[in-house]
Amino acid sequence: MYTQIENEVERLTDQPLLECLGHAGIGVFTIDADGSIRQFNDTAAEIFGIDDNTPWDDLSITRIDTFLSTGLGDKFPDLMASGEPFVGTAIGCTNPNGRFMVLNMSCQPRTDGVGGMIGVVEEVNTSGRRTEQVPSLIRELELLTEVSAALSSSFELDRVLKVILTAATASQGLGFNRVFLFLLDSENQKLNGHLAIGPSDAEDAGQIWSGLESKRQTLRDLLSSYEDSSRQHDEPITELIRHIGLDLSVESLVKGVCESGRWANLENETPLDDPTAALLDALGTRCMALVPLISKGKLIGLLAADNLITRVPISNDSVQLLQLLANQAAVAMEKARLYDEQKKRARELMRMNSLLKESQDQIIKIEKMSIIGELTSAVAHELRNPLTIIGGFANLMLKSELSVDLRDYLGIIASEVRRTEEVLEHVLDFHRSSQHESETLNLSDLVEKNLKLCLGRMHQSDAQISLSLASEKLMVYGIKDQLAHAAYQLFRLVAGELIPSGSAEVRTERRENNAAVIVSFECDDRARLQLTRALRQVFTDNKASQRLTIMVAGETIKYHGGNLGVAAGADGAPSIYFELPLCEEG
Amino acid sequence: MAHRILVVDDEALIRLLYERELGSIGYEVTTAESGTAAIEMVADDTFDLAVLDIEMPGLDGLATLNRLRQAAPQMAVILNTAYAIYKADFQTWLADAYVVKSSDLQTLVDQIQKVLENR
Question: How many other CB atoms are found less than 10 A from the CB of residue A68?
Answer without folding.
Answer: 24
